[in-house]
């Protein structure tokens, strides 16, 4: 299903009067509103190919309908999102779920939808049919060099697919670890993993980055071999300048201060990418901003502070991706809500009066520090985000328009009710 | 595969001298050693039918070989465990994974292995092929009365299967809940669930119990409709005298004091059953005693204190079951380790000098209270547990004998390498 | 220090134009704006007398200056807050920190400031100079009946002070529990505590309520004898119709779903009161809304849903109190921020489109449920809250006016730099 | 109060027969029992001077009697512990709580008791009377260079005291951090702290080590400026070869895998010291081994594996100290229980069959890995620990003898009932 520009314009036209009223009010309190809008328009969040189908847990999965049956249909879905919100202009592929049989065709298709290829994702946490050796006891950490070699080769293959598509980064998430005390020699597991990563690193093209993602637990329940930011940073530093840490919001122990981690990784020049989602208990992979929107704002506030301090470009110098699982919502609706929450948090962070904050910090005026942050957070920035969409030719209210267009019903008609997209 | 008594006796013979040396030493410090041994011999832990295959996570599953392909083979596996350790004399079935086509045949088969049928388990957390209505948004809590009715009828059917097999209890674990704020009206979800449970309760045979299991999170990640012991107790009290709370060790928020919960539920006369496993992060479903063996001991200590205070029979007045997932170990080995850990904790709890503890508590002599508990916990009770096995005709060292017999290799020969048992 | 009405009006005058612009915009989207404003004006949050001084941790305390030196000065401080924000019209006293030597004088003084006396608080978690028996090993749970008796008598004395002042409720927070396994017999501790509470309950005047507050941990680090809502509800049910559970936001295990607890307690007719604060790790006692403002909104949303379902009056049928510790902020500024955060969350909860939410819930339209909640939460309601203040004769921007008036500087001049208020 | 050697010998004589019976049994299964005993005799745990009095929480403190009133009496108390258990041969001082007025006298006194001076501890988490600038908003992180300078000078002064006493290490625990979002610029706080630490580092004598201790939360409740091992390692690496990370068991987020942290820090050559205690919720500072004894064993298992791999001396190459708070027990009894728990865990770790473990790890035989660890853990090693004490001239059962001697009663007679030792 395609949405043409004209229908969006028509839709926006009907919303315009109310939008203008709201936007005028919102804009009246923003200093450099044009600058803010431009930043909002530039900011793009990658959609992972595996987020387009209904996710599940180990207990079960309740598929919806009209899920994409091929890489082409996944690109179509992301294109549709991007058309609606103007902020989803990239897709992140997973190998082997998304092996492109004809890379140039796929690349051209993506370009038609205004999409680029974000970080490539490898998979050594599952065994694939026909795979020579099993990852049951890990991949890059494995005591058997042959298994490690297989994992390395898989990652190199993923890089090759990425090169063909025009991607320029590889995200390595390892489920390696142990479920029982004694199962692993932690040091040797680290050393094996480092050696494996070094072999992959050696195969990176000149302009590529490698993101080393960490996770505190699951699917291993005693230790993870890349378990926290400290471990990820150790690997990244030992690997070299192309290696970075990737932060996934759901991959921490309870109560972790993620915004401080972000700040320190930026200080070290080693923050590379970001996976957005939300959670209450563990890696719950819920819609971004659905549980802790203030934390999301605080993280964005640190991201901007740290990036600005290093002269980094918000839109291009970090990899931004959603990584969630849509168990009880329509995946496309969920993604629209997630991107909206990200844009809101980003807009709020842009509104923080940095000078006033720095001054209050300098005076240990803690109450004032809080006031400055909350002044930005409590502002209703939705009209600003909507205006950025309007200017980008996207829909003023993407989710509402999605429903008016009966997109899901159309997709089910096209693709059937019982399709199941590849993914978890 | 069957293990005959004679081969066990032969095996034990070879171990006997060393065992006697250890047992004599251990027994010399125990007051009523015969009483302790009898209690250890009486204590039986049910094995759930779904624990006989390799489990997995949402990220993947790495099957082993020789898994049971039918209910008959599951009974055979539990029979084998029971033959080895003399403490696994019950099996807990799950409907629809274990629908017996011929109940009397199955009952007779179990009896041959010395097994009885423990609590029956229903499943409304997954959709089955051909099922009329979906449980995607809950079962007994569902806003649609027809879905609730379907869930109730399923549970009544499970009771009927249980009656045919000679079981006398039903465990209801509901995954009902919500993954997002606003999704549920908590009160109505509670009321719907209560109404559904009441309908199932009305169908319980005279001598049956109903266990209402609670869980803090997963697969729902915002709220669970039977989420903690407080909620479970509310349901149980409103349902009536046949309804009890069931405690699963992995179903709590971080740092919960489970032993206190156990004590209070016994005080209220509402503790009905227990699911053993171990965990570090969430419902990790690891081998019992592999992460927090001291907590297990403390729980047993409260169980005995509370049961003794009410004159309850340790072996028969609560439902004891293992509920774990064997992702990286041979399931049968894992179960042997779990039962061993349970027996050790039970034996240690039996050794607690209750009089001395009560006296120290009465004097607020906290250091002494700790000494009394640790005196029991630090004692090496393995020879006592082994002696109980010896007297019951089971193997002195079950896991070692399991390996000597090459049980798994034999099962693979019999059943094949690629079998996958029903379960998660 | 006193602030007269006239100076507030003058201050508001200078803010009025900008306020009107913002208020008009905000009001334009609210259906029953007058009804909302009236509710905001009616809503009053009690200030605890111990929150007027600088708090600390076991590691240290860094006092500010100008802290109240007497009960009279505490009342003066709360009066000042109430004058500024029109929403702090009650004070909650703690015995023995606030024993009134002349109750009728104190009562009259409070009335002058427009304050009533909220719940009285007893203290059996510390030993006072000259106290006969020690609470080192608990108070109402104590193995020694004489200690329990002393605790009961203290509570009865607190009730008597309260009667003299016109209060009508008693909050019992017990630090009772244990720091080591074995220290307590959980059941006997519960029974002793129940017996003690029953004796206090028997002394309650006809129109009084008793609030049984629970806490998961601290100052006891193994078990708490009123440790969670389930335990508190057990006590409250056994005590009788005047006994209720009191929820303090910081008294839960990590990740607890407090909004669900609130909903279920309302369902049971047993929610009595609320202590506001915020926290990231434990009972951190931070400014309300400073860490998890969305959770605060969700809690308010459940409070309103549940109270409305029972026909309860928002303002009067539950006890609302702040309970925080001001370690690094001016206590009065902190309290102004806290009340503001509460009013914002309340206002947002009032804006929730209940009909739309109920309809979306009925259709399992999870994305829509979220939209309905977030529509209210993302609205900038500060102008509504300010308008309610304006109409109540309070300051449009209380914190800003507090600073302009140099209140703290004046208090230091009056009271000195080295005063230390009673409290933790 | 002093205990003479002769009375210990007499006491041991009465215990000897039963001890020998137990020891012979225990020794019979240990390969190199003499080697194990020697290691147990060599292992010494430092006692912090502030642990000799009753601790408390922010809610209150319930002092016992006979607490040491001076540094001399603290040394006497540690001497007494060391005399009883032969494993407490060091004391760790805190400045300004323990400023020695006459260092050579203090040094001689300690030597008389067989004690050496372990790591010196500085204090910038409290304001001292007469202190020029306040640490309310941090010390080494402070925005004001003058405050940082004061903190640096204090630490240098602590080093000087340590040099005079023969200590050779400095532990820096900073409570620096923030309690509210926005309060700190995380990066600048890190940079200020690093700069301050560098100035202290520059003042370290040639043979000294600096331990940078981390803590997740408390007394700051939003962020800590040395908050986890990753941050501590960053500082230590930037400081230089004399700087190390120090691990305190209670300073982690819930569910952290401390044993893995220990292993990785040893791999990096940056583990410097260890603070023992136990906890269920936060920095509860309970008796070592009272809550999670298996975790303690697993940590020791990693310590030995990692130290052996680097050829480190167990007894001397890491700093071992208890850091607990004795709120409801006699502090000396608590310390005796803590040291006993440490020695038991150390002995169990020494019994781990390293070769078998490595072989099982190499084969991914997870069940066997667990068996190897549990074989050691389930062994009753108390007779080995007692034998080591016997050979060192200490008491076979220190706590029992402590009570028989009525040590506390004697200390109260000597020092009075109302003494309060310096500390928290």
TrEMBL record, chains A, B, C, D:
Record bears the keyword tRNA-binding: no
Gene3D superfamilies per the UniProt record, alphabetical: Divalent-metal-dependent TIM barrel enzymes
KW Manganese (keyword) present: yes
GO molecular function: isomerase activity
Keywords annotated in UniProt: Isomerase, Manganese, Metal-binding
Signal peptide: none
Superkingdom per UniProt: Bacteria
InterPro entries in UniProt: L-rhamnose_isomerase (IPR050337), Xyl_isomerase-like_sf (IPR036237)
Protein name listed in UniProt: L-rhamnose catabolism isomerase
Species assigned in the record: Pontibacter saemangeumensis
Gene (UniProt): rhaI
């Amino acid at each position: 299903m395609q949405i043409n520009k004209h229908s969006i314009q028509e839709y926006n036209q009907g919303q315009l009067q109310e939008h203008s009223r709201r936007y005028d009010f919102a804009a009246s309190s923003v200093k450099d509103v044009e600058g803010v809008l431009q930043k909002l328009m530039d900011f793009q969040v990658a959609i992972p190919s595996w987020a387009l189908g209904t996710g599940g847990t180990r207990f079960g999965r309740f598929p919806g309908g009209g899920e994409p049956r091929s890489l082409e249909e996944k690109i179509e879905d992301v294109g549709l999102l991007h058309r609606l919100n103007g902020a989803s202009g990239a897709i992140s592929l997973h190998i082997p779920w998304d092996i492109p049989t004809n890379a140039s065709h796929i690349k051209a298709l993506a370009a038609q939808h205004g999409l680029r290829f974000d970080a490539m994702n490898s998979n050594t946490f599952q065994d694939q049919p026909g795979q020579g050796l099993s990852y049951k006891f890990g991949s890059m950490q494995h005591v058997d060099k042959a298994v490690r070699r297989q994992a390395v080769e898989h990652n190199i293959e993923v890089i090759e697919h990425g090169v063909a598509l025009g991607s320029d980064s590889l995200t390595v998430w390892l489920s390696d670890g142990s479920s029982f005390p004694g199962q692993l020699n932690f040091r040797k597991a680290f050393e094996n993993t480092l050696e494996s990563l070094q072999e992959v690193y050696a195969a990176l093209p000149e302009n590529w980055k490698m993101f080393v993602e960490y996770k505190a637990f699951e699917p291993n329940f005693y230790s993870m071999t890349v378990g926290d930011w400290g471990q990820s940073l150790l690997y990244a530093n030992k690997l070299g300048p192309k290696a970075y840490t990737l932060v996934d919001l759901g991959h921490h122990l309870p109560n972790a201060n993620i915004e401080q981690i972000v700040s320190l990784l930026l200080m070290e020049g080693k923050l590379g990418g970001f996976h957005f989602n939300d959670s209450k208990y563990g890696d719950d992979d819920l819609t971004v901003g659905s549980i802790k929107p203030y934390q999301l704002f605080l993280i964005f506030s640190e991201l901007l502070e740290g990036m600005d301090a290093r002269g980094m470009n918000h839109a291009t110098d970090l990899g931004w991706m959603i990584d969630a699982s849509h168990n009880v919502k329509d995946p496309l609706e969920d993604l629209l809500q997630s991107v909206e929450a990200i844009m809101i948090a980003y807009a709020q962070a842009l509104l923080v009066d940095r000078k006033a904050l720095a001054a209050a910090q300098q005076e240990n005026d803690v109450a004032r520090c809080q006031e400055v942050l909350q002044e930005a957070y409590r502002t209703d920035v939705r009209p600003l985000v909507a205006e950025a969409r309007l200017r980008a030719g996207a829909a003023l209210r993407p989710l509402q328009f999605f429903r008016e267009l009966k997109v899901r019903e159309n997709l089910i008609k096209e693709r059937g009710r019982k399709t199941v997209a590849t993914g978890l």
